Model the fold of this input.
Amino acid sequence: MVKTAICAIFAYLLGSIMFAYYICKVTKGVDLREVGTKNPGMANAFKCGGIMEGILTGVGDIAKGAIPVLVAREIGVGIFGQYLVGLAALLGHMFPVYLKFKGGVGVNTAYGILLVLIPKAFLVVFPCWFLGYFLTRSNDGVQYAAFIGVFLYTLFFAKNIDLSLYIFLMGIFIMIRSAVVRHPAEVVQFLEKYFKLKVKL
Done:
């Protein structure tokens, strides 16, 4: 329990490092919280920083999800403890203590977590990316398709119910974070279009 708690704290603090914000601040002198989508995540790093900034952000975000879970595994933390550690890293990215708890969506950090927990599932990620883009032509569609693919692989091929539920929980967190915090205007547009509701931000 002590090991799990220490690893979870480490995971949250590491997850709170917003690579997009710091990289773009250093290389371009821009504050991602004030430009583009005003979100300190990889998509905004690509948009307002550049290709290199976006790539470096993606690598950093994946690493900060993978490293804490890997450390927890190596020091003998059980599988459910590893789930908790991964969730702490994800929450750190979403609510970073260093940026007044205003962070990103967490997709790449979740990929890093799952890369350690079930690496074989990534055989389905790339096909799902292409399928998601073909069907939706949107970044969110790509992300959701990949998560659904990993979830289905874990449930039906790996036959790991616990991990499937964990992936489902992370997916819910990411969808809520993306829809409500990152893209509120899109949520309003969806409600007005399909449910005829008038919503004011």
